Amino acid sequence: MSNLAFEAPRRVAFKSRVVVQGPPGSGMTWTSLRMAQGMGGPVGVVDANRGAAALYAEHFDFVHLPMHSGKPNLLIEALAVAAEQQIATLIVDSGTAFWSGRGGLVWQVDHLTMTKYNGNNNRAWGETRQLEQDLFDALLSFPGHLIVTLRTQTDYQVQDLGEGRLAVVKYGTKPDQRNNFDADFHFTLSLDMAHAGTVTKSRVLDVPPGVVIEEPGEDLGKAISEWLGRGEPLPDVIGIRDKALDPSMTPDDLRELHRLAGAANLLRAAVLDQHDQVMALGALIFREGEQAAKENRRPARRTATSEQPTSQVGEVDDALPTPEYVPDDKTFVAQWAHCVAVIAQGPDAAEDLNTVEANLRQEKADGQVGQTDYAHLYRLIEQRRASLGLPYGQPPNVTAGAA
Fold it and tell me: What backbone phi and psi angles, to 5 degrees, belong to 309?
């Protein structure tokens, strides 16, 4: 019997995936920076355009990562670092450099064709297809908004200006990238030499295809991100990564975490592991699952008492509480765990959990909770949210201080 089943669709909040394309000089970098300001910050730029974005540093607030090679692995690593630094909107300027620039995919294929495969271009492409797909998957799985600029091939035409005057006008044709690069992107904007943008693809109903925008900028970026962002929030990539690296996670815990990441299409997101090595999130969870099975991890022992106190939602008794899990018999951790365990289904459940989480973060920031205990208690909070059908909270490293 098939395990497949159709279900009613649910609207989830997507992060924007935007292509800005045009001929050189059409204003792709400037337009992307303006749109990024509307999508929300912090903004980061992976600059493979000989540092051109730095020319606009006094006009925009962003962090800058110059790239002097188009090697796809470098861009995958940059995506992982951007996720680690909680960059909300990332600009890749330009995506063409990682396709046909020095070290890019086409460059690598040409090199393999001549040096390894004796002129056999097909075999060279076969060797690089996995790298191409890994790069594309990492781009689409980036946990923030993403803008990729693409240079288009340039052509010229003669334009009649009237009264016997003629002018040669430069315009863009096909993007210098793989065919159908923007197929899985939400929005494509094609710029001309007057810096006006034509919407050539859109999944944003508020900005349909065919619309010409004279000066695309902050308003357009805001319209795209707000329309796509309507719906249930998705789990945070770094929060999932941190859970996967928690040494108390059992194989069953990690299988469920893998399922949640898969449902959110985050398995191929590029992240850094505990050794700062770049990995796909799904591969990291799988690796940790194998380690958990090797160590034969089991859930921490449950404690039972015949005199367990009865508390109302959100209340904490003065007597020693009995938590769901007691790691290392720590009374302090047990009290925190009890605060989570007594929160039951109800209209105030989300607010109660948010309050407990905020207090825990403050204790962590004040140095009262160590990193291991903090990670364990944060996991209990998220498990409680999941059991009550509530959305995930903030990732555990957003506001908490250093251990």
Answer: -65, 150
